[in-house]
UniProtKB/TrEMBL annotation:
The keyword DNA-binding applies. Pfam families: Bac_DNA_binding. One of its GO terms (cellular component) is cytosol. Coiled coil: none annotated. This is DNA-binding protein. Keywords: DNA condensation, DNA-binding. CDD domains: HU.
């Protein structure tokens, strides 16, 4: 399910208007993003958790140039 499908489902289930649901979903995602940018973890009990993780650099091939690059 993508964002558009989520908005459509909530609109159908609640009877709220699409702009209201779209705004609520946008605000939820923006709030999660801001918390992660501030270094906080986000835990939504019964749904999932979000956290920023640092990954070690690795080599990969650029499909456009076929060059090996550090990712």
């Amino acid at each position: 399910m993508n964002k558009t499908e989520l908005i459509q489902k909530v609109t159908q289930e609640t009877g709220l208007k699409r702009p209201q649901v779209s705004l609520a979903v946008d605000m939820l995602l923006e709030s999660i993003q801001q918390a992660l940018q501030n270094g906080d973890n986000v835990q939504l009990i019964g749904f999932g958790s979000f956290e920023v993780r640092e990954l070690a650099a690795r080599e990969g091939r650029n499909p456009q140039s076929a060059r090996i690059e550090v990712l």
